[in-house]
Amino acid sequence: MKNKYFPVSKLLLVFASVLLLLSACVPQKKIKYLQSLQEHDSSRVFVNKRPLDYKIQPNDNLYIRIFSLDTKTSMFFNQYQGESQNMYSDDASIYLNSYSIDKQGYIDFPVVGKVQVKDLTVAEVKDLLQSKVTEYVTETMVVVKLVNFNITVLGEVNRPGELKIYQDEINIFEALSMAGDLTDYANRNKIALIRQTPTGSKVIYIDLTKANIIASEFYYLMPNDILYASPLGIKQWGFATFPYAIVFGAISTALLLINYFK
User: Fold this and answer.
1) Rounded Cα distance, 149 and 154, in Å
2) DSSP track, 133-147
């Protein structure tokens, strides 16, 4: 009787071990990007009709500096020019020394006075200030940068948090790479993009397994965008941090006991 019982018990334990391993695995099709891109599409060009550059909005912050051969004149436009360059050594100092757009969309620029910049691109603000400064002094160069180009990445990524962007544009794959890439348990079929609009926050769901994302209007991110990668259903079992050593130790002990009492 015992000789029949123990082999069956051993078989059940082996079956449970295999089932445990299989249930903890994430299929490859769940973790691959751009799956719909076939080999014959390797020379295909994806045209991205992305929207125009970001439009400046109230509460945005702009870094603005005027450069001129006549430093004595240009210093009247640069309210902090006479101070140490160390003031720009970190993000906080750059933010504190930038120009904040008020609720009506204006900045208060030295000498020139109030300038309406709402709904203008950074390039348009640069051209506008250049024309106004030229009225006072010639041979100048205006530099304008958007200070608050931040992206937040949350959920199933290796390094979640806020990203500081120091370039004019960034796409969704670049942002995810800065966050350490998605984990194996991220649902690549349904990445939530939360974007601020004049009428409120809008949630868009993006499928990173489809190649047409490259041509999507949401491929390039905007300031203050939030990306959220939700987990796959398999993670609800806690296999990402499952105590494998304890489970397999228990199985090994059980097998030893079965062999001992055979």
Assistant:
1) 17
2) HHTT-SSEEEEEEES
Q: 84 and 132, same structural domain? A: yes
Select, from the ranges 54-58, 88-92, 197-201, 258-262, the one with the highest average predicted confidence (pLDDT): 54-58
Tally of domains in the chain: 3
Question: How far are the Cα atoms of 32, 212, 256 from residue 45, in angstroms, in the given order?
Answer: 21, 11, 61
Q: What is the pTM assigned to this prediction?
A: 0.71
SS3 70: coil
Domain range for 103: 61-146
Work out the number of other CB atoms within 10 angstroms of the CB of residue 124. Answer: 15
- Distance (Å, whole) CA 46 – CA 141: 36
- CB-based contacts of 84-93 (< 8 A; 24+ apart in sequence): 91/164
Residue 248 lies in a domain: yes
